[in-house]
User: Which sequence fits this backbone?
């Protein structure tokens, strides 16, 4: 059996009104990525294939992890466009508190994702069904034959969707999983050539389980 390891990107810069501002690692995100790479290499991890989505924060996370090899890119590992979803919900005028306050942001995001999954936010650039389809396409791309260990860097939404789909859980479970995923956490799946895809580990952070690593842990 082969293994797909999906890492969430390092902490990004929070508070920008535009996706471009968020799509950059913070200094803490860089430190998280470097530490995870060191821990995984010490554990003997040698990926046969490296993959990221198209987002800068994902690519930079992999780069700072320090593995050799040219990564592939598959946009199915990209996050849903939460800026667009929030703009659709609020008619283009997202309240400043939602943009600037973390608690308000994530409370509002949870409700917005629920509306999106239920078929609301009809003007969004991507429907829930389209998001789910592209995450599945990314999974199929990553688990195609030819590698025993695949390392992918993605985001909380696709990771939540992969886990929920793997467990045949209701769509709403993706939201709960999504909002738990820690920056640079590790989620592992086992897959076979016959199509089996099994969750092995979710949201693990072995690199933060030390006195020096613990202060680096973040969720957004």
Assistant:
């Amino acid at each position: 059996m082969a293994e797909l390891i999906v890492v969430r990107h390092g902490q990004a810069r929070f508070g920008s009104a535009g996706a471009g501002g968020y799509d950059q690692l913070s200094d803490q995100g860089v430190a998280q990525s470097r530490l995870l790479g060191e821990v995984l290499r010490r554990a003997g991890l040698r990926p046969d294939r490296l993959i990221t989505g198209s987002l800068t924060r994902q690519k930079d996370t992999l780069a700072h992890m320090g593995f050799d090899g040219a990564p592939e890119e598959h946009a199915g590992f990209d996050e849903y466009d939460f800026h667009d979803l929030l703009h659709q919900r609020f008619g283009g005028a997202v309240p400043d508190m939602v943009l600037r306050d973390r608690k308000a942001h994530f409370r509002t995001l949870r409700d917005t994702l629920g509306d999106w999954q239920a078929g609301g936010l009809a003007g969004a650039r991507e429907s829930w069904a389209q998001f789910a389809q592209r995450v599945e396409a990314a999974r199929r791309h990553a688990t195609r034959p030819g590698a025993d260990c695949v390392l992918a860097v993605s985001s909380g939404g696709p990771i939540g969707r992969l886990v929920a789909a793997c467990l045949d859980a209701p769509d709403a479970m993706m939201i709960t999983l999504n909002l738990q995923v820690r920056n640079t956490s590790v989620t592992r799946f086992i897959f076979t050539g016959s199509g089996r895809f099994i969750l092995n580990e979710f949201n693990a952070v072995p690199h933060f389980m030390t006195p020096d690593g613990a202060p680096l842990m973040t969720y957004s």
Remarks:
- Residues 32 and 216 are 6 Å apart (CA to CA).
- The chain has a mean pLDDT of 93.
- The chain has nine helices and six strands.
- The domain at 2-79+128-216 is CATH 3.40.50.1240 (Rossmann fold).
